[in-house]
Amino acid sequence: MTIAALFVGASRIAAVTLLVAVAAAQTPVRINEFVAQNTLGIVDENGEFEDWIELYNSAAATVVIGGQWLSDDPARAKWQIPANTTIPPGGTLLVWCDEDGLQGPMHANFKLAAGGESVVLFASDGTTILDRFDFGQQSADVATGRISDGDSIFVRLPVPTPNAQNRQSGCGTRDYHARAPGTHVAELALLNAPSIGTFPTLEVILAPTNALCGFVLALAPAHVDLSPYGIANEVALVDPASLVVLGLQPADLTGSARVNLAIPQQPALVGVTVFAQTLIIAAGAADSSTAIEIVICP
Fold first, then answer.
1. DSSP code of 82?
2. Residue among 33, 31, 38 at smallest CA distance from 161
3. CB-CB contact of 37 with 140 (8 Å)
4. Spatial separation of the C-alpha atoms in residues 82 and 36, rounded to whole Å
5. In this structure, are 200 and 120 located in the same domain?
6. Among residues 80, 81, 126, 283, which is most buried (max CB within 10 A)?
7. pTM
8. CA-based torsion, 227, 139, 146, 66: positive or negative
9. How many CB atoms lie within 10 A of CB 186?
10. Contact present, 98 and 53 (Cβ < 8 Å)
């Protein structure tokens, strides 16, 4: 099924319970999400705002992760996960990064640097790296995480989801951004519920007032550096291979542009997920917006 078959008037363009102990090298546990500057988010058992890391088990069975290590330094394992710690199938484990092990078993002996460093999962030998993510400058109370649990694509999530699924919960929309803060200044939103048989409005704001805005949809998310294609400092947050243009609109004097998304009255579309972003051309230069995940409602 293509997006063109789902949305009226879209035109396609070519575009560039069993308990198992899993061997270290085969662990299905991944670094799933983290916040390196928690000021107003969740609190730990002591009511304190601390940085955190979420681990996710993609296996169909419970995994014993006790004995493995976490660190903010790829050259040195720092904190060993307590013995016999497990993560259920499709479940998560939250670790507080606060250098305060006296507050509980899941409090690591390191903090995360908001200016950028690494999150590393080591095997029980303290040497073998099982998973690693290097990050740059972080914003307060914004998570960096996989677009969906266990996915290969990392993005910024303005609404963190500790110990919850990394996806839109039910129908509606969810914002996601490029990993580097400030990469996309223009912001995209869907103004109405994306229900079948309706025409909700996609709106981009903060675009240059003389810009031409191209609203696009894709069946999958992405995080593609566009600099090799001559578009410096930009990242495609939708899959270019499934890109569909909904419309081209000029930005008004406030830097806003809008286009209607026509959703057919087809019950089979309920629950379908698509991803949207706006491509912006102004003064001969290319720009783009933040992105949204859309799950179609009844």
1. P
2. 33
3. yes
4. 22
5. no
6. 81
7. 0.89
8. positive
9. 23
10. no
